What does this fold into?
Amino acid sequence: MTEEITDIWVYLATSPLLWLTMTLAVFVFSTWLNRRLGGSPALHPVLLSMGLLIVILLVTGTDYDTYFEGAQFVHFMLGPATVALAIPLYDHRHQIRAWLGPLLVAGVVGATVAALSAITVGALLGGGHVSLMSLAPKSVTTPIAMGVAEQLGGLPSLTAALVLLTGSLGCLMAPGLIRLLRIRDDAVKGFAMGLTAHGLGTAQAFSISATAGAFAGLGLSLAGLITAFLLPLLIAWIPLG
Amino acid sequence: MNLIHGMLGILACQLVGETLARAAGLPIPGPVLGMLLLFAFLLWHGDPPPALRRVSETLLNYLALLFVPAGVGIMVHFQLIARDWLAISVALVVSTAVTLIATMLALRGMLALRRRRND
It folds into this structure.
């Protein structure tokens, strides 16, 4: 009997089905747990899911590549979801056209501050070159950030993790900062959340309102475009030891 | 129109975006270019077909879930993070807060400036 269970486990542990199902199950559980605990952003369902899945993988001795064979089906949908952001953008086309100048200026300010503050603080605390270059694109959505990090001499896979942490931190800090600065306009809230905390910020902005979500999608795309074009030029200008 | 049509539209935009980005050697990822293409198409075409709207709303409702697989990848970098953990964690916290503040103030300031100029 024990032997049969072991055999079944050996088969399942390497099949994509198990880790795909596990990813969905853990996320459903994390969302439920987050709601039970009062919906605190410190226990964001994504962070909870990451933690739980890492523990499960470590306990069962499964490596990340095996896990990703199953989880890649979820990961793949990031591309289509990015394309889908065109619809909320289209819904808010009039407001975007009216605000084009202010949005572009705020986008350049935000994207520059995001990269320079991360590099400066990291360098002051003795971070290595690879870490700094992996940190620089941390506010940008994962696929853009990984490409930019590679171009700058960082580690794309480390960047992917830092991007996720930035996203969770953004969701955690945004409500407090919005209250502190007395921001009332949902468009301003959403734009800053999408620019700073990319997809995670955008997901949270949609829970404020559809307007916040649409402007978060705009902030996310602007941050990506500006960073992809400007950051490599900016890095060439600043002297880094 | 059904869901397959909506999904086909989105995948086709991503495919064209991916192809353009590679052919032109652009540093922008294909999906972002695909989103800009779809946005441009909608501006030209008018309101999105219901199937496209339904698929995109479904995808965006589960946006947070889609980040989980990449996030679990942090387990591969525990050693590097252990070496530079102080610099990385302080930089992340400070930079995230400063970026949120700078962006909100910049947009609010620009909007206020323009409103005053228009008055």
